[in-house]
Amino acid sequence: MPLDSRLVHPFENAHERLMWDELKQYLSAAFAADPRKSILLGNFICGRQIDACLIWPRGLAIIELKNYQGQLHSPLNDRWFIGDKPVNAGGALNPLEQVRGARHALGDRLRKPWAEKFPGAPVPNWKYAAGRAVFQHKTTWQDLFDDQTRRWFANSSLDTIAADLFGRQIDTYNLNADQIKFIAETVLSTPPRRIVHKEQQQILDHGIEGITLGHLTLGGVISETHEERTAMDRDLDGPIPAVIREYPLADDEGFLLHLADIRLENGERQIMVCQNYTGSQKWDRLKHGLRLGAYLQGDGRWAARLGLVRPVEGGKWSNREHRSDLAEIDEITGIDVRESLLGLGALNVGTKEEVYGEQNRKKNELCVLFPEDKPEVGLAAYVLTTVLPLMEDAREKEVA
Predict the structure, then answer these.
(1) What is the tens place of the pLDDT at every residue in 176-212?
(2) Strand partners, 243
(3) How many other C-beta atoms lie within 10 A of the C-beta of residue 172?
(4) Is 196 exposed, middle or buried (0-12, 13-18, 19+ CB in 10 A)?
(5) Tell me: the pLDDT tens digits for 45-104?
(6) pTM for this structure?
(7) 348 in helix, strand or coil?
(8) Distance CA 151, CA 161 (A)
(9) pLDDT, average across residues 306-318
(10) Which whole-number Å values give the CA distances from 101 to 52, 70, 209, 213, 333, in the listed order?
(11) How far apart are alpha carbons 160 and 122 in whole angstroms?
């Protein structure tokens, strides 16, 4: 059956248009031999900009087109280079992280609608949708990835991508024509319109560079203020002097919260939402509660509890859970929490007893330990346990 190719938005640059045309030709030739339906989407936004997405009975693949050729150096946790030229990754650390963010964005968009549309059907493993960074012909590289990454991601070139994907069977994918059509329509659907503030419009116009957390990006510090704040320690009365650093958290569709990393003089640290530009008042609760506390554990080391926040009956959000399970947080967010936090510079992830030898009744609570110079670890812990688990519930309440 002929491949159904849809360029959603025209590419701005000539090299992007040429690469799209070549990609379409190679994939069309390969998939014409398959009697079942397949769809190739080009240049669209689903939480973030995506160059191409192939949906076929045996899988789902996110493709980023890279107009480079030569000897590629593509380490797992660092910038990528061809010769001495850095490979652009749309604000992400490298194309692997760029595709990882797109994969999470698609999973977030599909997870709930799929369950509602196909309640009795097996759920595809959105976490292991294939990801490919596709380069020009004559590009060469050495495989520097670990086994877990190789399970879903690889570098490819325009002349090899069709053979690479055509024979690939991805875990739990066995899609019929109706499901393929549904996936395409869902990832292209426009979420409820949000109120656009000045800060939010700047994000929409210029994007945000920083750390990829699912389909969200955490930017660098944008302000530092000195105020007095109330401690989480109930034995302390009255406000305490504090340093407050503010960080934006955004996607490509206008979602924007500002997070605060608050350092109190009593040695306490709090992470919470300080500005809500989403258009949904429900996020305002995170400006007043559900703070994530972090406390010094030795010289320059901080520990923050990984307690999950989740929607509960009655439209409210639960208090932060005392006992959470890493596998459950992974499932809810679509992210390997331990791998993500360690990749950002965490020293350890586990129970309080495992991480720093806690022996009281809280010893089995999960936590992350991170050094003074890695505030992004604490902020990421907040996003993974608080913001991402609440996204679907809050999205339903957004302003139309």
Answers:
(1) 999 999 999 999 987 766 667 777 777 777 777 888 8
(2) 226, 263
(3) 13
(4) middle
(5) 888 889 999 999 988 999 999 999 999 999 988 899 998 899 998 878 899 989 998 998
(6) 0.77
(7) strand
(8) 16
(9) 85
(10) 14, 26, 13, 7, 12
(11) 31
Q: 20-34 pLDDT, tens per residue?
A: 999 999 999 998 888
Angstrom CA distances, 308 to 233, 260, 355, 367, 370, stand at 20, 19, 18, 11, 19
CA distance 118 to 128: 19
Instruction: Determine the length of the chain.
Output: 400
Structure tokens that stand for 269 in this block: 């640290």
Backbone angles phi, psi at 366, to 5 degrees: -75, 145
Six-digit token pair at 254? 């206008």
User: Which positions ≥6 away from 3 have C-beta within 8 Å?
Assistant: 24, 27, 28, 31, 32, 38, 39, 40
Name residue 256's beta-bridge partners.
250
CA distance 66 to 22: 13
